[in-house]
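Exercise 3.2. Students should predict the tertiary structure of the chain below and write it as structure tokens, then compare their answer with the key that follows.

Predict this chain's 3D structure.
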Amino acid sequence: MTSRRKLIVVSNRAPVGFDVDGEGRRVVRRGAGGLVTALRPLVQHHDTTWVASAVTDEERRLAAAGPLDCESRDGAPYRLRLVAHDAAAYDLFYSVFANPILWFIHHGLWDLKHDPDADPTPGWRDGYLPVNRGFADAVVEELDREPAAAVFFQDYHLYAAPRLVRERRSNALLSHFMHIPWPEPEGWDVLPRPLVEEIHDGLLANDVVGFHTHRWRSRFLACCGELGLDATRARVTAHPISVDVAEFESLAVSEPVQEREREIVDGRPERLILRVDRTDPSKNVVRGLAAFGLLLDRRPDLRGRIRMLALLDPSRQTIPEYVAYRAAIEREAAAVEARHPGTLHVRVEDDFAGSIAAYKHFDVLLVNSVADGLNLVSKEAALVNVQDGVVVLSENAGAFEELQEWVVPVDPLDLDGHVVALERALELPAGDRRARAAAIRSHVRTNDLAAWAAAELGELDHVSRIGA
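Answer key:
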């Protein structure tokens, strides 16, 4: 970890949420999600102010009262500044433009939109930009309070904010990390060119722009070249995010996980194929279920010996495309189960303890995302697995760049290729399985979450030294 410094972390999601119960009492909930977990080392080791959206009525009331003094799950203090946006603007920002337009572009899913010719300009103009202005205003006020603080923007919700801050505080030290894949230049063709230029120019207003992989970094540089933008204005880097190893190993032996583990062990088949995902179109769940059904169609000798467990977290169920995709998952699961009763168990619920318990006991883990910025499941599950489980990993997941030597690769759009990959994973010799599993565990333990945070802040240190 680099030396202690003052940080302003900026993300749409806060590390803690506030609401009220039926009796009007305030309820505090710890933030969930990979981004919040990933940024925990920053809070632990630095003097951090976290700027995030106020999304509930209680959070909006708190935002009006000023910043809050909070503690992380590990007891580290930080300052939370909630930004209350206009409700109509925030809905356009989140539910119309950021999700699904930007998300679908970044993951190569635009053809799944019901109306690909819809004009995206109002969502950008009346939602995305006003919300980003609100974030920029808050950041500028925080910089006036702590001029030496470095600003660390997160992800695709905040493309416009760095430029808005730079225009008002030209000497500010700004960094932006992208947690999702970056598309090829032609992927942006569905948006008006001036809007695409604004997105890329907004990122280039940072001193450092970070990606998980060299692949996503190269695509960003190619896009800047196509747009005639000078990418050398920023230091563009690649550092893959990782897992809090100590936390996951502790969770793996916790009582809630052990309770769920007993359920899995009691009903365990000879071979267990696992997938843990959100019900997001980018996760490619439908094709994965179809491949499992096709495997059993073609290999009657495997019937009764293998089972697939799909643990799915419901995702963005206020957005029509996500609702439709969840329905497609349920239809495909029913079709597989009708042909091969008792071989497929699908759960759609938020069950973190159950997921970790299943991580420990898979023989094959299927991660077949259409595209993923990284995919932490492939690292988390391999870290705590006790069965020498084999990871079948999409070639379009960012983690493939790190783990490809030790996984079974799969083209996420090739259904027959899925069947071949699953067969290969099931039939690998014991020694090969053991060596692959040990190599991934070793890699994750060496390249952990703290190492990623140190690398990201090290890039800021590099920029500071150059500017000194």
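Discussion points: The mean pLDDT is 94. The chain has 18 helices and 16 strands.
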